[in-house]
Amino acid sequence: MPFLASLLTRRGAATLNWLRGWNGLTRFGAGAVVEALTPSFYNSATRSVVQKQIYFTAWQILPGYGLFAALLSFVIIQIVVSKARDFGLSDYALEMTMRVLVLELLPLITALFVALRSGAAINTEVALMNINNEIKALREAGVDPMRFEFVPRVIGGMISVVSLISFSSIVALVLAYLVVYGWQLSGFADFTRVIAKVFVPLAMFGLILKALAFGLAVTVIPISAGLNAPQKLFFAPISVLQGMVRLFFVLMIIEVASLALQYI
Amino acid sequence: MERAPVRAPLIKNLEFKVGLLLTLTLLVIVLFILYTLYARGAFERARELILVAPNAEGVSVGMPLSFSGFPIGQVARMALTENGEVRIVVEVKEKDARWLRTSSVFTLEKGFIGGAKIRAFTTNLKDPQLPDRAERKLLTGDATEEIPVLIAKVKAILENVQGMTAPDSSINQSLDHVRTVTERMTGEYGVMEGVLGGPDKAQRLVTALDRANSLLTTLNGVSLKVDSVLAKTDQRVFGTDGTLARVDQSIAGVNAILGDVRDSLKKADAILANAQQATANVTAITADVKGATADLATLRTEVDDSIRKVNHLINEINKKWPFARDVEIKLP
Amino acid sequence: MLADGAARQHLLDEHPQAAQVSVGLPLRANLSVLENICIVPQYRQNLGYEDAADQAWGLLGLLGRTDCAFKRDPDLDHEERFIAKLLRAVVLTPPIILIDRPGMLLPDTHYPPFLERTLDSLEGRFAQCWIVDYQWNEPLYAPR
Predict the structure, then answer these.
(1) pTM
(2) Do the Cβ atoms of B2 and C57 come within 8 Å?
(3) Based on the structure, what is the number of domains in chain C?
(4) A234: in domain
């Protein structure tokens, strides 16, 4: 019995801890969104942090990521178009590539890429800041760390993800056109018709909402994971691990939810 | 105060780069949204076309309406009507509306694989354009269903054609008859022979006409005699009860009948003249045969009629004319 | 100039408005010394980066330490780090500056004369400066 009791206690404590983590995450996310929508939030310092975040998350990786997105899109479009031709379904090839690439795959891959790169970096940095007491130091110096360090990162991260998704999607659409119709304008009317079929208002709205949700998750979850870490140096890797796992699940849940909303 | 020598040591042109990125992103998003709106025809006037189908299986909103393989419109919405049919509203862009005419036919086709297709067929592009919100039937049927029906129909048509061209077919028989008729027409009595079926019958008609002519002269004689009889028996008749009036009537009738007979004979003359002309040109004959037959038939009935009337009149006169029983009228 | 362990904590808690210079309050590790000083006026007074940088550069010039302006925390020696923290506190011209345990901030320096020199250079940028140190270090300070 004592064994069982201690097991239950530990399990219960772990569950509570887990719930506390999600609670902190939600509070932080909501707070960040509210701050971001407050005009007085923006000042010289926060603007500069937003700019830096966008620079590091989007501008720096744009050429490389654009190239990668183009390569991936090209390969997938080729496969879909040639297979569709084999089965005599060429009419649906373009629609299929648009749905697969632009509506689903590219947003998700972009979010995962940013999560791996910037999300992990932000998580580590915030965890170290927290452990090093830099957060408290900022507060002592009269700078609100929430406003100065975290919310700008959330805003910058969201803008970056939306920006990367838009650019890679445009690249994919242009490539799809070129693969299907070649270097000529004659396919434009047909292409436009397929666009009209795929990008109905609901899908468009869903795509924008999904991009924003991805951007929010990619920054909010690592920051809150870093903030929730106990102030001991050896918790830094644990905090990053937890943050990344949580981020992965949230990204997948967003993706599944968007799929379910659109197709069910 | 001394100025700081370097501005942002870490990133050059940070603000410019971020600004550029933001502007481009916004531009891309806005342009793409505008493009999708354009693609959905938000900037273009569209006509609505309502297709009524018994079954809309496989039809979905956004499905294209294709004409000659080109999409010219798409299904905007669908609804069930009161009587269980499906109303499919198709939006057709104004610039593509010219492909749809009042005589256009719309079909819903289902293939073996892939979705259904709505297609428009316009055979005559000179017909008036289909107006806005026009209602048309959507002919349904899938490829597998249609083929046997089509084959059966084609078979029936082919059988008919075969029956027509067989040696004992009615068309051939008719052609044979036409040939005999035209052969006869080239005979002594021309069209008459052709119409009446042989030289002897034509002969008979001619004699009938001759007799009618002689009858006419006889009738002339009769009327003269009647005149003289009237003159002689004036006072006898005068004063007796009502006879005079009746006789007057009868005479008027006789005159009218004689007029009729004369007209009929004139017509017969005209037809005979026609027939003579016709014999000169064989092809013209075949064309005129129908008219000629109709004319001859009426002539014949008129002649018969006249003769019957004359007969009747003479009987009447005999009844009412007690003194002239010896007057004999020979009828043909 | 006070002293002692528990009394020190009490003092810190009693004067939250005092701008502290302490071992427990590090610089932002990914920002240079100049930026660490800049962000305070940038954030508090919405000062443009250029103006804030000029202000910070001026303060560093007063102390003759402009050479470390673009170094980051790990590259600084103890004196430079102390100067950076001090200037971060001074830049807003607060009423009280509280230097907590200078012996920990400046382990390699005979710090009382160093502090004296530094604070004299910044004359007029703050009303008072309190130095909190252990009582056993009292002999280090010259009597006033």
Answers:
(1) 0.66
(2) yes
(3) 1
(4) yes
d(CA B185, CA A51): 109
Site of tokens 């009237």: B230
Say how far apart CA A56 and CA A49 lie, in whole Å. Answer: 10
CB C114 within 8 A of CB C106: yes
Task: Single out the residue of A146, A163, A161, A155 nearest to residue A50, CA to CA.
Answer: A155
User: What is the residue-averaged pLDDT of chain B?
Assistant: 74
Residue A140 domain flag: yes
- Choose between B156 and A216: higher pLDDT: A216
Question: C61 and B2 in contact by Cβ < 8 A?
Answer: yes
Residues 126-145 of B with CB under 8 A from A: none
Q: Which residue has the tokens 């009280």?
A: C96
The length of chain B is 332
pLDDT for A38 equals: 85
Closest CB to B36: pick one of A48, A166, A196.
A196
Is the sign of the CA dihedral A60, A65, A67, A68 positive or negative?
Answer: positive
Residue C143 falls inside a structural domain: no
Question: Do residues C88 and C38 lie in contact, with contact meaning Cβ atoms separated by under 8 Å?
Answer: no
Contact B38 A92 (CB under 8 A): no
∠ Cα B92 B96 B97 (to 5°): 65
Instruction: Sort out which chain A residues have CB atoms less than 8 A from C44's CB and list them.
Output: 142-143
Residues A48-95: tens digit of each pLDDT: 889 999 999 999 999 999 999 999 999 999 999 999 988 888 878 888
- Specify the CATH number for the domain of residue C29: 3.40.50.300
The answer to whether C53 contacts B7, with C-beta atoms less than 8 Å apart, is yes
Give the separation between CA A50 and CA A46, rounded to whole angstroms: 6
DSSP β-bridge partners for residue B266: none
For B21, name the nearest residue in chain A, comparing CA atoms only.
A59
Instruction: With respect to residue C144, please indicate whether it lies within any of the assigned structural domains.
Output: no
CB B29 within 8 A of CB A165: no
User: What's the one-letter identity of residue B294?
Assistant: A
- Determine, yes or no, domain membership for C142: no
Query: Which residues have CB under 8 Å from A87's CB, separation 6+?
Result: B113
Containing domain of residue A200, as a range? 41-263
Burial call B32-66: b when 16+ CB within 10 Å, e when fewer: beeebeebbbeeeebbebebbbeebebbeeebbbe
pLDDT (tens digit, 9 = 90+) per residue, A242-260? 999 999 999 999 999 999 9
CB atoms A193 and B41 under 8 Å = no
Cα angle C54-C58-C64, degrees, rounded to a multiple of 5: 140
Residue range of the domain that includes C24: 6-137
Whether A30 is in a domain gets the answer no
How many CB pairs lie under 8 A apart between chains A and B? 72
Per the structure, the count of domains in chain A is: 1
* Contact criterion met (CB < 8 Å) for B28 and A162: no
* Cβ neighbours, 10 Å, residue B227: 11
What sign results for the dihedral spanned by CA atoms C60, C64, C66, C71? negative
How many helices (H) and strands (E) would you count in chain B? 8, 7
* CA trace torsion A117, A120, A122, A124 (10° rounding): -140
Write out pLDDT tens, residues C35-73: 899 888 888 888 888 888 888 888 998 888 888 888 888
Residue B1 predicted with pLDDT over 50 = no
The answer as to whether A241 is a domain residue is: yes
Residues shown for chain A:
264
Q: Which residues contact B212 (CB under 8 A, 6 or more apart)?
A: B261, B264, B265, B303, B306, B307, B332
Chains meeting A at 3+ CB pairs closer than 8 A? B, C
